[in-house]
Amino acid sequence: MILDYKNLAALKLLSSIDGLGPSKILNLISKFQSPSNIFSVSSQSLCGIDRINKILAGRIAGAANDLKKFEDLLEKEFEHLRQKGFSLITYFDKNYPKPLKNIYSPPLFLYISGKIEAEDNYSISMVGTRRATQYGKKVTEQIGEELAGQGITIVSGLARGIDSASHRAALKAGGRTLAVIGSGLDRIYPSENKGLAQQISENGAVISEFPLGTKPDAQNFPRRNRIISGLSLGTVVVESNVNGGAMQTAAHALDQNREVFAIPGNLETPQSEGTNKLIQEGRAKLVKNAEDILVELDLKLKPVIGKNIPKPKVDLNLFEEKLLEVLNSEPIQIDKLSAKVGSTTSDCLVNLLTLEFKGLVKQLPGKQFVKL
Questions:
Q1: Which strand (E) or helix (H) includes residue 35?
Q2: N- to C-terminal Cα distance for the chain?
């Protein structure tokens, strides 16, 4: 559905109504075909819609008189955006990020400085504390550069510390990066990142769901965090205390059925308390480098990096190497395998079990084995 000017204004008006979030608006549009049609429906009819109570129905019906005012406001907003070189896309536009459509409460409007490309559908977010350690910055730079070098877009929040390091790593590798902010595009925060924001706009996009002029108030950032995770196939938490914003982003990712990764850290460092807790509780996969992430997201990243995903390096003993030389994609029974390697069945089984743990061998019914 392509929205004309009247329907864009109607969508803006709907978004301004207290208690009417994106999911409810999208549900109403699916019932009445367009945003403007909703304002021609009686409050009694609106009450029959799921999650629309009498009070909310009254607010919607009463807001119909403001439609012309919102058309005028939208005209002024577009002019302001043109002057600044920014753009506005809606949930219904073709260039709206596909991964973001699949989350609960997706933003209906995105203000863009730069350009979102189709390749950005294959993104990984990297987030963490503003008070990053040297270790955290180093790991962020290494992983960010390697991922960006594989053609993966890096998403983060333009904050000090880990976020800024993530964006800079992607830029250094000549890759793309998206910054999601909790303010208007004309209110870059922190102010020292204005130059970085400009670089990001030239090699990706700075994104906000907030209109121009919106200040970076604290309540905006939790909303911002759901977009960071929603844009991404997976989220990497590099460093965070247990109550940090990066932990909120990880929680959003889990709710959105996205992968969560965490970098283990020093047990005595507050900046690693959150990441270590995520790993301990099984809510995040422990990763040490970009290779670990690429292997985990192998199938999802295939369209971008093809078959070039590196295989994990595994240390093998001499017996394990001998077994792998004999094994192939054809199943072989344990007795025949032990005869071929010249060893006992029990010794073979012990080493085959180790190889299975390492992801190199698979056991089939009837004690048959194949090489993966």
A1: helix 35-38
A2: 46
